[in-house]
Task: structure prediction
Amino acid sequence: MIDSYRHKGLRKKLVESLLEKGITNDNVLKAIGTLPRHFFMDLAFEEKAYQDAPFPIGKNQTISQPYTVAYQSALLDIQKREKVLEIGTGSGYQAAILSLLGARVYTIERHESLYRSSKSLLESLGFTNINFFWKDGYKGLPEYAPFDKILVTAGATSIPDKLIHQLKIGGICVVPIGDKDQQMYKITRIGENEFEQNIYETFRFVPFLSGKE
Result:
Protein backbone atom coordinates (compact mmCIF):
# COMPACT_ATOMS: atom_id res chain seq x y z
CA MET A 1 0.00 0.00 0.00
CA ILE A 2 1.35 3.37 -1.05
CA ASP A 3 0.72 6.71 0.65
CA SER A 4 1.98 9.20 -1.91
CA TYR A 5 2.64 12.94 -1.71
CA ARG A 6 -0.60 13.36 -3.64
CA HIS A 7 -2.54 11.40 -1.03
CA LYS A 8 -0.97 13.49 1.73
CA GLY A 9 -1.89 16.68 -0.10
CA LEU A 10 -5.49 15.54 -0.49
CA ARG A 11 -5.62 14.71 3.24
CA LYS A 12 -4.37 18.19 4.06
CA LYS A 13 -7.21 19.66 1.99
CA LEU A 14 -9.69 17.35 3.75
CA VAL A 15 -8.48 18.57 7.15
CA GLU A 16 -8.84 22.19 5.99
CA SER A 17 -12.43 21.49 4.89
CA LEU A 18 -13.25 19.87 8.27
CA LEU A 19 -11.86 22.93 10.05
CA GLU A 20 -14.12 25.13 7.91
CA LYS A 21 -17.09 22.94 8.90
CA GLY A 22 -16.45 23.56 12.58
CA ILE A 23 -14.17 20.71 13.69
CA THR A 24 -11.66 22.42 15.98
CA ASN A 25 -10.21 19.54 18.02
CA ASP A 26 -6.51 19.61 17.08
CA ASN A 27 -5.90 15.98 18.03
CA VAL A 28 -8.78 14.77 15.86
CA LEU A 29 -7.66 16.88 12.89
CA LYS A 30 -4.10 15.62 13.29
CA ALA A 31 -5.27 11.98 13.37
CA ILE A 32 -7.37 12.43 10.21
CA GLY A 33 -4.46 14.21 8.55
CA THR A 34 -2.16 11.30 9.46
CA LEU A 35 -4.26 8.24 8.60
CA PRO A 36 -4.43 7.18 4.92
CA ARG A 37 -8.18 6.77 4.37
CA HIS A 38 -7.61 5.16 0.96
CA PHE A 39 -6.10 2.12 2.72
CA PHE A 40 -9.58 1.37 4.10
CA MET A 41 -11.46 1.54 0.80
CA ASP A 42 -11.91 -0.57 -2.30
CA LEU A 43 -9.55 0.38 -5.12
CA ALA A 44 -12.59 1.43 -7.16
CA PHE A 45 -13.13 4.33 -4.74
CA GLU A 46 -9.48 5.27 -4.15
CA GLU A 47 -9.70 8.42 -6.27
CA LYS A 48 -12.57 9.63 -4.08
CA ALA A 49 -11.05 8.64 -0.73
CA TYR A 50 -10.48 12.22 0.43
CA GLN A 51 -13.89 13.54 -0.47
CA ASP A 52 -16.01 14.30 2.59
CA ALA A 53 -18.45 11.51 1.78
CA PRO A 54 -19.32 7.95 2.86
CA PHE A 55 -18.59 4.99 0.56
CA PRO A 56 -19.77 1.37 0.51
CA ILE A 57 -17.54 -1.33 2.04
CA GLY A 58 -19.83 -4.36 1.53
CA LYS A 59 -22.55 -6.00 3.67
CA ASN A 60 -24.72 -2.85 3.21
CA GLN A 61 -22.21 -0.96 5.37
CA THR A 62 -20.23 2.20 4.67
CA ILE A 63 -17.01 3.88 5.66
CA SER A 64 -18.38 6.99 7.38
CA GLN A 65 -18.03 10.49 6.02
CA PRO A 66 -14.83 12.05 7.46
CA TYR A 67 -16.90 14.88 8.99
CA THR A 68 -18.98 12.29 10.88
CA VAL A 69 -15.86 10.49 12.12
CA ALA A 70 -14.33 13.79 13.22
CA TYR A 71 -17.57 14.97 14.86
CA GLN A 72 -18.07 11.81 16.91
CA SER A 73 -14.38 11.64 17.83
CA ALA A 74 -14.40 15.27 18.98
CA LEU A 75 -17.52 14.70 21.13
CA LEU A 76 -15.78 11.75 22.81
CA ASP A 77 -12.78 13.95 23.69
CA ILE A 78 -10.41 10.96 23.98
CA GLN A 79 -7.65 11.21 26.56
CA LYS A 80 -4.47 9.12 26.46
CA ARG A 81 -4.84 5.50 27.67
CA GLU A 82 -8.63 5.70 27.96
CA LYS A 83 -10.46 2.41 27.46
CA VAL A 84 -12.88 2.89 24.57
CA LEU A 85 -15.54 0.53 23.25
CA GLU A 86 -16.52 0.97 19.59
CA ILE A 87 -19.69 -0.64 18.26
CA GLY A 88 -19.41 -1.28 14.53
CA THR A 89 -15.83 -1.80 13.33
CA GLY A 90 -16.78 -1.65 9.66
CA SER A 91 -13.69 -0.80 7.61
CA GLY A 92 -11.63 -0.19 10.75
CA TYR A 93 -11.06 3.50 9.92
CA GLN A 94 -12.77 4.91 13.01
CA ALA A 95 -11.03 2.36 15.28
CA ALA A 96 -7.69 3.49 13.84
CA ILE A 97 -8.55 7.15 14.51
CA LEU A 98 -9.41 6.28 18.13
CA SER A 99 -6.10 4.45 18.42
CA LEU A 100 -4.16 7.43 17.03
CA LEU A 101 -5.90 9.59 19.65
CA GLY A 102 -4.29 7.40 22.30
CA ALA A 103 -7.21 5.15 23.24
CA ARG A 104 -7.05 1.48 24.14
CA VAL A 105 -9.71 0.32 21.69
CA TYR A 106 -12.16 -2.57 22.00
CA THR A 107 -14.14 -2.81 18.77
CA ILE A 108 -17.11 -5.07 17.92
CA GLU A 109 -18.27 -6.03 14.42
CA ARG A 110 -21.35 -8.19 13.72
CA HIS A 111 -20.32 -9.22 10.16
CA GLU A 112 -17.61 -11.87 10.21
CA SER A 113 -16.13 -10.84 6.84
CA LEU A 114 -15.74 -7.21 7.94
CA TYR A 115 -14.37 -8.29 11.33
CA ARG A 116 -11.70 -10.42 9.61
CA SER A 117 -10.75 -7.88 6.96
CA SER A 118 -10.49 -4.90 9.34
CA LYS A 119 -8.55 -6.95 11.90
CA SER A 120 -6.11 -8.11 9.22
CA LEU A 121 -5.68 -4.60 7.79
CA LEU A 122 -5.13 -2.82 11.10
CA GLU A 123 -2.72 -5.46 12.36
CA SER A 124 -0.76 -5.16 9.10
CA LEU A 125 -0.59 -1.38 9.63
CA GLY A 126 0.92 -1.91 13.07
CA PHE A 127 -2.01 -0.99 15.32
CA THR A 128 -1.29 -2.89 18.52
CA ASN A 129 -3.75 -1.25 20.93
CA ILE A 130 -6.95 -2.40 19.19
CA ASN A 131 -8.82 -5.52 20.34
CA PHE A 132 -11.25 -7.00 17.81
CA PHE A 133 -14.44 -8.96 18.53
CA TRP A 134 -16.96 -10.68 16.25
CA LYS A 135 -20.04 -10.27 18.43
CA ASP A 136 -23.48 -8.72 18.83
CA GLY A 137 -22.82 -5.02 19.47
CA TYR A 138 -26.08 -4.60 21.39
CA LYS A 139 -24.60 -6.69 24.19
CA GLY A 140 -21.35 -4.73 24.36
CA LEU A 141 -18.45 -6.32 26.24
CA PRO A 142 -19.55 -6.60 29.89
CA GLU A 143 -16.54 -8.81 30.61
CA TYR A 144 -14.23 -5.85 29.81
CA ALA A 145 -16.37 -3.10 31.39
CA PRO A 146 -16.31 -0.45 32.67
CA PHE A 147 -15.26 1.75 29.75
CA ASP A 148 -14.21 5.38 29.82
CA LYS A 149 -15.93 6.03 26.51
CA ILE A 150 -18.30 4.16 24.17
CA LEU A 151 -18.84 5.04 20.49
CA VAL A 152 -21.72 3.66 18.43
CA THR A 153 -21.23 4.00 14.66
CA ALA A 154 -24.73 2.92 13.58
CA GLY A 155 -28.14 4.50 14.06
CA ALA A 156 -30.00 3.20 17.12
CA THR A 157 -33.77 3.63 17.49
CA SER A 158 -33.43 4.20 21.24
CA ILE A 159 -30.73 4.62 23.88
CA PRO A 160 -28.87 1.26 24.15
CA ASP A 161 -29.38 0.57 27.85
CA LYS A 162 -26.96 -2.37 28.10
CA LEU A 163 -24.18 -0.26 26.62
CA ILE A 164 -24.53 2.85 28.75
CA HIS A 165 -24.44 0.66 31.87
CA GLN A 166 -20.98 -0.49 30.75
CA LEU A 167 -19.65 3.05 31.23
CA LYS A 168 -17.69 3.98 34.32
CA ILE A 169 -19.14 6.79 36.43
CA GLY A 170 -18.21 9.95 34.55
CA GLY A 171 -17.90 7.98 31.29
CA ILE A 172 -19.35 9.16 27.97
CA CYS A 173 -21.28 7.35 25.23
CA VAL A 174 -21.72 8.99 21.81
CA VAL A 175 -24.57 7.39 19.86
CA PRO A 176 -26.77 8.49 16.93
CA ILE A 177 -30.46 7.96 17.74
CA GLY A 178 -33.46 8.05 15.42
CA ASP A 179 -35.19 6.14 12.61
CA LYS A 180 -34.52 7.52 9.12
CA ASP A 181 -32.25 10.31 10.38
CA GLN A 182 -30.46 10.36 13.71
CA GLN A 183 -29.55 13.04 16.19
CA MET A 184 -26.17 12.70 17.85
CA TYR A 185 -26.51 12.01 21.57
CA LYS A 186 -23.75 12.42 24.14
CA ILE A 187 -24.72 10.46 27.24
CA THR A 188 -22.71 10.89 30.44
CA ARG A 189 -23.06 8.45 33.31
CA ILE A 190 -23.27 10.55 36.46
CA GLY A 191 -24.41 7.84 38.90
CA GLU A 192 -25.22 4.15 39.19
CA ASN A 193 -28.53 4.67 37.37
CA GLU A 194 -28.24 8.35 36.49
CA PHE A 195 -27.39 9.63 33.03
CA GLU A 196 -27.17 13.10 31.54
CA GLN A 197 -28.08 13.65 27.87
CA ASN A 198 -26.92 16.28 25.40
CA ILE A 199 -28.32 16.29 21.87
CA TYR A 200 -26.44 17.67 18.87
CA GLU A 201 -26.64 17.71 15.07
CA THR A 202 -28.60 15.40 12.74
CA PHE A 203 -26.84 12.68 10.73
CA ARG A 204 -27.76 9.60 8.72
CA PHE A 205 -26.23 6.22 9.64
CA VAL A 206 -26.78 2.62 8.64
CA PRO A 207 -29.12 0.94 11.19
CA PHE A 208 -27.82 -0.53 14.45
CA LEU A 209 -28.82 -4.22 14.22
CA SER A 210 -28.67 -6.97 16.81
CA GLY A 211 -27.17 -10.43 16.32
CA LYS A 212 -24.10 -11.38 14.28
CA GLU A 213 -23.59 -12.79 10.77
